[in-house]
Amino acid sequence: MSNSEWFIIPNLSQFTDKTRSIVYNNFGSWQNKSGLDILIDGIKETEQEEFNRILSHQESLLIIRENIKKEKNKKTNKTRYVLNDTMFSDIIHKLNDRMVSNIINILTQKGLIETAFDNEANDFVFWINDEQKNNYKKPEAD
Fold first, then answer.
1. pLDDT score, position 45
2. When comparing pLDDT for 95 and 41, which is higher?
3. Phi, psi at 67, each rounded to 5°
4. Burial of 122 by CB count in 10 Å (0-12 exposed, 13-18 middle, 19+ buried)?
5. Which of 3, 27, 60, 94 would you call most buried, defined as having the most Cβ atoms within 10 angstroms of its Cβ?
6. Phi and psi angles of residue 101, each rounded to the nearest 5 degrees, phi first
7. Taking the CB of residue 41, how many other CB atoms lie within 10 A of it?
8. What is the pLDDT of residues 84-110, one digit of tens each?
9. What is the dihedral sign for C-alpha 125, 32, 35, 28?
């Protein structure tokens, strides 16, 4: 790749916050957004605490660091982080996947959903824990 296809991240912490905002603000959006529409500025103050519980800055930073390139200048010994479009897309998808996983985990811990492993599907299955209804019946699982 040529240097023009790489983007320098001037502040990793700010980049992490902005990227988290993109993931959060576009969660569940089925519209095909184009251009700068996805770059909504930040998360509403009223939603920030909840979002921090769902996908923390630290957890996001770890995912981002694993998916960007670290460069160290041999003369100045300074470190910088760079990424390309593919890396950024991967980061968005991984943060979204982690957010979904964390939401499911939170709902399971609160007892709102239940989960089991389905050997036939070789995957986890989830269902709403609705014990208040008379016709409540847990699915069979190993």
1. 77
2. 95
3. -120, 15
4. exposed
5. 60
6. -60, -45
7. 7
8. 999 999 999 999 999 999 999 899 888
9. negative
Distance CA 25, CA 55 (A): 13
The residue written with tokens 């957010």 in the block is: 99
Cα 69 to Cα 6, 60, 108: the distances in Å are 10, 16, 35
Where in the chain are the domains? 3-103, 111-142
pLDDT band at 41 (very low <50, low <70, confident <90, very high): low
For residue 114, give both structure tokens.
Answer: 């239940």
Q: Which amino acid is at 131?
A: E
What pTM does this model have?
A: 0.74
Angle at 52 between CA 59 and CA 32, to 5 degrees: 85
Q: Are 17 and 40 in contact (CB under 8 A)?
A: no
Gap between the Cα atoms of 16 and 30, Å rounded: 23
